[in-house]
Amino acid sequence: MAKRGRKKGSDGKVSRALLLKIAADEFAEHGYHKTKISTIVQKAELTQPTFYLYFKSKEVIFQELEDSFRLKLTSLTSNSRLEKGIEEEFLPHRIAEGLSAVLHFFADHQSLGRIGFFVSENASQIKEQMAQQIEKNLLEEAKAGYFHLNVDMNIVANGLVGMIERLIITKLWTGQNTADELTKEIVTALLYGLKNN
After folding, report:
1. What CATH number does domain 12-55 carry, 1.10.12.10, 1.10.10.60, 3.40.50.300, 3.20.20.80?
2. Residue 45's Cα: distance from chain center in Å?
3. Which UniProt key words apply to this protein (predicted)?
4. CA distances (Å), 187 to each of 22, 96, 98, 100, in order?
5. How far is 158 from 174, CA to CA, in rounded Å?
6. In angstroms, rounded to a whole number, what is the distance separating the alpha carbons of residues 134 and 138?
7. Model's pTM, two decimal places?
8. How many CA atoms lie within 13 A of 15 on its CB side?
9. CATH top-level class for 62-192?
C-alpha cells in the first residue's frame, strides 16, 4: 500500500488527528520507548516528512497527548464539585454525575487514559493532582454541609483515585462493568458504606 504525503489541498487537520490517534494507541500498547515514529506513519499511511509537518519529535506528540489527558481530567474533576443548595434526595444523583463523567472519559479514551495514568513518567503526579482537586472539592462540600467535617478528606480523595485506577484496569477496560455500573457501586459504597442497617 502506497504511503501518502500531505497533498496540495488536503485537510491537514485530518492528517494531524489521525497521527495523534495512532500515536496514542501505539504509546498505550507499547509504551513510550518502544513506540516508533516509523510505525505511527506506516499505520497512518503517511510519510515521515508529513509527521514532522505537525510534530517536531516523538517527545512532542507524546507531550501533547499527555497534556490533553491532564487538561480533560482536571476539568472533569473540577466540574464534579457539588454546588450549594442540592436537596438531600438528589445528592447521590449529583455525585454520580461527576464520577460518571470521569469514568466515561476513561471508557471512551482508553489509550489516552493509559498514557496519562500509567505510561507517562508524570502519571503519579497526575494522580496526585487529581487527588488534590478531589480533596479540595470534598472540603468545600463538607463546609456546605453535605459531608462530615471530621473525616480526613485527603484519605478519602486518595482512596477514590485508587479505586478509580484499579477499577478502570480490572473492570472498565476489561468490559466486565460499564462506567455507569461502576459509578453506582462507588457512590453506594462511599455514601452508605458497607454496614447493614
Report:
1. 1.10.10.60
2. 28
3. DNA-binding, Repressor
4. 35, 6, 11, 10
5. 23
6. 6
7. 0.90
8. 23
9. mainly alpha
